[in-house]
Design goal:
Shape: globular
Strand order of the largest sheet: 2-1-5-6-7-4-3
Number of strands: 7
Structural class: alpha+beta
Largest sheet: 7 strands, antiparallel
CATH superfamily: Electron Transport, Fmn-binding Protein, Chain A
Number of helices: 4
Order of helices and strands: HEEEEHEEHHE
Amino acid sequence: MTTYIPPALDWVREQVEEYEGSGGTKGTTLRDTGLPCIIVTHMGNKTGGIRKIPLMRVKVGDAYVVVGSYGGREKNPVWVYNLRANPDVEIRDATEVFKMRVREVPAGAERDKLWAASAEAFPPYLEYQKKAARLIPVFLAELV
């Protein structure tokens, strides 16, 4: 049986607990932004444990765009490495839960389109990219 490892940051853990604990009827906006978020359940690449992270809701068709912005920090968030190693995820969007597989989208036309959709949903991504010396990873989560 795989063990759930709660997020280390208090606000992230509280967001996940409220979202999941309510069955997706509460905690569905990210902190004080008022913007919708999803919960991505994935497997830790080092621990093998179940991890959950709230991320901005960016939907393109039946797929979700998952952006590893980390607020424009120098490094990728840890979950980026988890998704690269274990692409099978579960996404909770309010009361709906989907089994999905993610793939990282390399620089090019497809990434440009997904990045534009992401920036439209959450404009701070543009500032985060300006701050970051790295190309912010973009993943596409698709139904399996």
